[in-house]
Amino acid sequence: MPVNQASPHGAYNSAVPFPEWVDEVYLGSAAAETYTVPQSAGFCVLTSNLPFWGRIVTGEDVAVVPTDNVSDGTGSFYIAAGIQCKLGSGKSLSMSRGTAAATIVTIGVYRA
User: Which terminus of the chain is more exposed, N or C, with fewer CB under 10 A?
Assistant: First the structure.
């Protein structure tokens, strides 16, 4: 019986071209960092060496590691290490590390 191997975590069903533009965000402290996808981009793909929490920036909101229940839509999204997440052009993402160790988020930007 042949073995079929899916892409990591099933994020994409086919190979994604290697990005020609790559940025990195270093989450070295407990403070949140923000990254904005360039307007000239179609989208970007995020990966990281360790898990982190992310939240699309609206106003002054920043990503936080939850310490209580959140049921009003303002929570931060857990992004496990190695999972690819797609973020659209012009969007800003606030990121907070999910562990005590420094976390590096790699952002592959794809042109529109």
Answer: N
